[in-house]
User: Fold this.
Amino acid sequence: MDVKQIWTNFIHDLQNKICSALEEVDGKATFFEDAWERPEGGGGKTRVIANGNVFEKGGVNTSIVFGDVTDAMRTQLKIEGDTWWACGLSLVLHPVNPFVPTVHCNYRMFELYNKQDEVIDRWFGGGTDLTPYYLFEEDAKHFHQTYKNACDAFDISFYPKFKKECDNYFVNWHRNAERRGIGGIFYDYQREDQAPSNSPEGGETNAQPLPINENDKLLNTSKGEAGAQMASPSGGSSMEGTKFGKGAAFWIEFAKKCGYGFIDAYIPIVEKRKNTTYTAENKHWQEIRRGRYVEFNLVHDRGTLFGLKTNGRIESILMSLPPTVRFEYNYQPAFGSEEYKLQEACLHPKDWLNEISEEERIAWAKRSNSC
Assistant:
């Protein structure tokens, strides 16, 4: 099985598993699937959930699209080649309750070909980021720790690097560099160590220390436990200290670990917050912050730009937008309020796993004073 087929199988399996987990935690709404085709080549499966107990609107979309490299793509997307192919999953969920965060997740693979239909470039990208409306530090730590564990199973340099990339990508630069949320991980344009081939193992310098499965030539992730053979529950890895090339197999397994990890990162937060009582004022603040979400997606997001420049399906591209939103002139939260604390966290990204919380700081001060 070649690289494209292995990746496609993973993306479709990830869509199924995430949708099942989301339907279970919602308890009411189910996903509606809209299969579509792109005239220039390819298509996708848009799955939408709406008016549920938990989710006001959301979508978990997959697409496999391909076509000729156009002049617009060469000029605006800086793509050189004759034809291209892309496959990925993208999801956005907008909850009803303001105390449940919005979340975004995206994992994708892109290939570029010459006139002889030979692969001349291949890259992988992805990530998951959290956009709360009210800040709970334990939720932020849980979310970031889940992805640190996933990253550490492959390379201990990944989490700090990809967290920084996330903090510096989801930014409304026109609003004093205010972040869309509290981040997560984000990586893009990750290429193999040598020229790409159709084999997931790549050339000799790309040889992977991964168990081989005769069905798909990669780890068996039929149960959704991507990378389970490599990582301990605490995020340790049998690969730690091992030198290896980062070929296609490496980046596919990394995407599996992070992609399936979405369920562990997000669902526990939803379970904890979905029944929290909220007021009209809380809902008002949620819609103000949703406005920032809209601004980023329409002004800065590269995925939105790519979809629009390649004649993507507009309904699927704009699925990420929330159902209700407010734009109020120069709205500012009250100083010191919970809303103000959230805004400050978006203006000043934090190291959630190494900074002590206010509660921890107070407890430490009490212990010091008793000495």
